[in-house]
Amino acid sequence: MDPKNRRDFLKTVGAAGMMSAFPEMNLAASTHIVHEIAQDALHDVAPKHSVRFAVAGMSHDHIYGMVAAMIRGGGELVSVYAAEPERGDEFIRRYPQAKRAQSEDEILNDESIKLVLSSAVPNLRAPLGIRAMLHGKDYLSDKPGITTLDQLEEVRKTIASTGRIFAIMYSERLEVKAAVKAGELVQAGAIGKVIQTINIAPHQVTQAKGDAGGGTGRPEWFWHPEQYGGILTDIGSHQVDQFLFYTGSTEAAVVASQVANVRHPDHPQFQDFGDMMLRGNSGFGYVRLDWFTPRGLGTWGDGRLFILGTDGYMELRKYVDVTRSKEGNHLFVVDAKEARYIDCNNLTLPFGPQFISDVVNRTHTAQNQAQCLLAAELVIRAQMGATHASIQG
Description:
The chain has 13 helices and 16 strands. The model is unreliable at 15-23 and 207-216 (pLDDT under 50). It has two domains: 51-169, 3-Layer(aba) Sandwich (Rossmann fold), CATH 3.40.50.720; 173-351 and 378-389, Dihydrodipicolinate Reductase, domain 2, CATH 3.30.360.10. It is 35% helix and 24% strand. Helix 6 links the parallel strand 5 (115-119) and strand 6. It is an alpha/beta fold and 393 residues long. The protein is globular and about 60 Å long. The strands form two sheets. It has a ten-stranded mixed sheet, with helices on one face. Strands 4-3-2-5-6-7 form a six-stranded parallel sheet, sandwiched between helices. It has helices spanning 3-21, 23-30, 62-72, 85-94, 104-108, 122-134, 149-162, 171-174, 177-187, 225-228, 236-247, 351-361, 369-384; strands at 33-37, 51-58, 75-81, 99-100, 115-119, 138-142, 166-169, 194-202, 252-260, 273-280, 283-290, 304-309, 312-317, 330-335, 339-343, 387-389.
């Protein structure tokens, strides 16, 4: 635009028109925007307790995050059993202090071990946890920790008869700093009463170059719902845990659910898309899951969580802020007074110390036992009742 036309344009639209033409100017002029870096008092605080623990099964690499959390909390890793020898070799390279056991029974019969961790094939996790509890040990499973209602019933019976802990590492809440901070703010009433959570949980299937559908780099069990539980039971368990936690719901039902295999014809049983709608006694929830994260993102998934309250809302960009930051843990909070951005990367994760303390003190601070199992039940029911959908093209 030449100078004369520019002057004429400015005279015509006036100041109010300019503000409307450029929405970001409206935002800057009318909204108080605060940028924060969250801090806590837990840095360099020594663990209060120590517990000897072991790993039995590591079919998923989530085991490394689980072990790291227990060590941060004061856990002492003493032994490991790996059904897949190559995975055991890698684990021992990372944790040479762990003695290599020859069987699960060797770990279960060691009375000095108080806690067992596992990321075995998903449909094997609950049976192992039941055996661990019957041997007088507490148990921490990778998600999904339970894949059938029969397993769930047996887990509940065993908890009741033994008094042991059956925990599931829902890491998208327990091991994400922005999610921990969001929980603190929700509990403090920062956005009023929570009405709804919306979880968008995309994941990435590693594919060979030129492979349009099959995918590589995943173990065989990954493709079979009877082993991994189905997309809603598997990765959906993270999201339903968050729905229950942030809404405070102690009872809930699945309103609707569906699954689909859109792009993996070479694995006809696999489900690469799913969603579900939930209604709790204290809020609503919607969850969308998929295996379509493109390589260009640079990480395994752009996980988002939206929490709607009566007096404001939050958005969590958990693992990346696209085109702006390769780091995660971005938390946005909007209320009647201001819009806040909170960088949560400096926070200390509390789950490890809390869980080790629970094992020692027989408490449930790190994870509510009933909520843990209700999340597992809801995703199993969602999976069982899901419509198997298809789309054209």
